[in-house]
Automatic annotation (TrEMBL):
UniProt name for this protein: Nucleotidyltransferase family protein
Ranges where the MobA-like NTP transferase domain occurs: 12-176
Molecular function GO terms recorded: nucleotidyltransferase activity
SUPFAM superfamilies documented for this protein: Nucleotide-diphospho-sugar transferases
UniProt keywords, alphabetically: Transferase
Pfam families in the cross-refs: NTP_transf_3
Species for this entry: Litorilinea aerophila
Length: 216
């Protein structure tokens, strides 16, 4: 007998509006495998079951939008990306989800420079969110919190109420009901802010692809 309950849907909002000042070039557009960093992020979130995937753009948004042309990303412009880019981008993405009016349990909050996070890890967060849709869900490695994490829709008003001097971290610290998903990879803690970090992650990608192809 089929359940009459609709599937629990989890969206994703990607903060991709920043200027990549420490990288020296726009990291969203850097090569990643056969695509770009930002396209890989979106594709991984979608493959893990997040839908819709909202990508919030700002700096050089036309170029980033072009890189996302063949992905399922819904594009949103953050006009305030120069001030508190990450928080204001998440707020812009959540406002978009509310405007669309789709029935969603909540959303993943993801970074635009983490194409290296395995789909299986993201899927584990999505599946836990579907089991506990009214509680925040955070992946953890060695007792440290990482991305992407899940913010239930019941907490969206608190997110939108944060001022530019506040942080999402402060909101999460107030929660006593966080569900943690322990993972065995530090990928959730790492991003690519500098050329050295990008090269290190690129080398790991090449090794991973080599193992899949059976080459040393």
């Amino acid at each position: 007998m089929r359940s009459s309950h609709p599937p629990i849907r989890v969206a994703a909002v990607v903060a991709a509006a920043g200027r990549s000042q420490r990288m020296g070039q726009l990291k969203q557009l850097l090569p990643w495998g056969e695509t770009t960093v930002i396209a890989a992020v979106v594709q991984n979130l979608a493959a893990a079951g997040a839908e819709p995937v909202v990508c919030v753009l700002g700096h050089r948004r036309e170029e980033v939008a072009q890189a996302l042309a063949n992905t399922p990303a819904h594009l949103v412009h953050n006009e305030e990306y120069r001030q508190g880019e990450m928080l204001s981008s998440y707020q812009a993405g959540v406002r978009h989800l509310l405007e669309q009016g789709e029935p969603l349990a909540g959303t993943l909050l993801a970074l635009g420079d983490q194409p290296h996070i395995p789909v299986d890890i993201i899927r584990a967060v999505v599946e836990q969110a579907q089991r506990t849709p009214h509680q925040p869900v955070v992946p953890s490695y060695a007792m440290r919190r990482g991305h992407p994490f899940y913010l239930p829709a019941v907490l969206w008003p608190e997110l939108l109420a944060l001022g530019p001097e506040e942080t999402l971290r402060a909101l999460m610290r107030r929660r006593q009901d966080i569900v943690y998903v322990p993972v065995e990879s530090d990928a959730i803690l790492r991003d690519m802010d500098t050329p050295d970090e990008y090269q290190t992650l690129q080398e790991q990608l090449r090794k991973s692809q080599g193992r899949k192809m059976g080459t040393p």
